């Protein structure tokens, strides 16, 4: 599995010939599945290959469950948390939120192998993100933005170098608990 950061909170997940995009910053990127975690209520839709609403879906062997999150970062915005199962790996993906998610959402993403956590000026603070990571205990936590990443590392008493991409197999991350991986933007 390869995870790369596309900038503006967007990620690309690639496994073999199948790819998943989360909040792509532009329409030029193509994928088998696109997840939209945040947007105005009017623009969030679900079409073949693009998921932008809560619910349960299966596309190309990728199982997706989504729930609305309260506490979106902006007014009149829908934020969604997704639990994604793909090739035996559980991904927890949170939309832009500025407060800790409610119990139902925590249950959805609990036990994630990889957690994409919103952190930044308009999202969770480094302290809130650290608390969430400790609560969920993912093997790997990847910040959606790099603004407060160093502060997050300091709170969690970790060190990490920025990486162009994160390449791993499930066996590589087994036994890890809350390790932060910071990815450079593909636009840097």
Description:
The structure is a single chain. With 188 residues, this protein is of the alpha/beta class. It has one domain (2-180): Metallo-beta-lactamase, Chain A (4-Layer Sandwich). It has helices spanning 103-109, 126-136, 149-155, 170-173, and strands spanning 2-7, 10-15, 18-22, 33-35, 38-40, 50-51, 55-59, 62-69, 77-86, 89-94, 114-117, 140-143, 165-167, 179-180. Strands 5, 7, 8, 9, 10, 11, 12 and 14 form an 8-stranded mixed sheet that branches. A 6-stranded mixed sheet has the order 6-4-3-2-1-13, with no helix packed on it. The mean pLDDT is 90.
Structural class: alpha/beta
Q: How much of the sequence is in beta strands?
A: 35-45%
> What is the top-level CATH class?
Alpha Beta
What's the CATH H-level homologous superfamily? Ribonuclease Z/Hydroxyacylglutathione hydrolase-like
Helix count equals 4
Order of helices and strands: EEEEEEEEEEHEHEHEHE
Total number of β-strand segments? 14
Under the CATH scheme, the architecture is 4-Layer Sandwich
The low-confidence parts are none
Q: What value does the average pLDDT take?
A: 90
**Biggest sheet descriptor:** 8 strands, mixed
Helix and strand topology:
Blueprint: E1 2-7, E2 10-15, E3 18-22, E4 33-35, E5 38-40, E6 50-51, E7 55-59, E8 62-69, E9 77-86, E10 89-94, H1 103-109, E11 114-117, H2 126-136, E12 140-143, H3 149-155, E13 165-167, H4 170-173, E14 179-180
Helix pairs in contact: 2-3
């Amino acid at each position: 599995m390869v995870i790369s950061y596309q900038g503006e909170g967007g990620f690309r997940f690639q496994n073999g010939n199948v790819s998943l995009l989360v909040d792509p910053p532009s329409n030029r990127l193509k994928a088998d599945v696109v997840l939209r975690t945040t947007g105005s209520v009017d623009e969030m839709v679900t079409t073949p290959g693009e998921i932008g609403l809560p619910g349960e879906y299966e596309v190309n062997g990728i199982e997706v469950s989504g729930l609305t999150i309260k506490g979106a970062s902006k007014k009149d915005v829908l934020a969604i948390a997704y639990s994604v199962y793909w090739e035996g790996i559980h991904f927890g993906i949170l939309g832009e939120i500025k407060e800790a998610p409610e119990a139902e959402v925590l249950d959805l993403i609990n036990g994630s192998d990889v957690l994409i956590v919103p952190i930044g000026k308009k999202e969770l603070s480094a302290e809130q993100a650290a608390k969430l990571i400790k609560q969920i205990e993912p093997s790997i936590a990847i910040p959606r933005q790099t603004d407060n990443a160093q502060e997050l590392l300091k709170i969690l008493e970790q060190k990490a170098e920025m990486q162009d991409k994160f390449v791993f197999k499930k066996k590589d991350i087994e036994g890890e608990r809350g390790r932060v991986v910071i990815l450079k933007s593909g636009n840097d």
